[in-house]
């Protein structure tokens, strides 16, 4: 992913108001992000821990979506679970159901789509082995190459974002 500016990130959001995008806080380590190792940018808002954000590169420019994080203790994940984007297994607290308001009129009516994702939204780092989940079995050994695993992850994420955009 190419490095993005604060302005590019804030103007990319499709399922929140301009005011919400202006108020969101960027990741605390924004200046040190490993852009070449990121296929998308994902973070939990440091100023609003029940909000998370994803920004993906698309042919027509970046697209950002805001997500709701469940309150502590309100997740239905059992002892371990798998992220539906990168297929990394985590202990119960490492995967969470994030809900995205749909873009457009249906989102303004309160309709959402949910997906189980890595709670820290660091899927690209898990796929590349840069970060390890706390669960010992975290990443299963696969016969797919790294490029194929990245393509699968970005395909899963694109499908999720497309469902949000279809709102």
Can you give me a brief rundown of this structure?
By secondary structure, the protein is of the alpha+beta class.
Structure in words:
This protein has 167 residues and is of the alpha+beta class. Helices cover 25% and strands 22% of the residues. It has five helices and seven strands. The protein has helices at residues 6-11, 18-23, 105-108, 123-127, 146-166; strands at residues 40-44, 51-56, 63-68, 80-82, 89-91, 95-101, 112-118. The strands form three sheets. Strands 1-2-3 form a three-stranded antiparallel β-sheet. The model has no long low-confidence stretch (mean pLDDT 90).
User: Strand tally, please?
Assistant: 7
Instruction: Find the structural class using helix and strand composition.
Output: alpha+beta
Helix content: 25-40%
Largest sheet: 3 strands, antiparallel
Note the beta-strand portion: 15-25%
User: What is the ordering of alpha helices and beta strands?
Assistant: HHEEEEEEHEHH
What is the distance, rounded to the nearest whole angstrom, between the alpha carbons of the first and last residues? 26 Å
Would you tell me the overall average pLDDT? 90
Uncertain stretches: none
Strands side by side in the biggest sheet: 1-2-3
The outline comes out as: globular
CA-based gyration radius: 15 Å
Number of helices: 5
**Overall number of domains:** 1
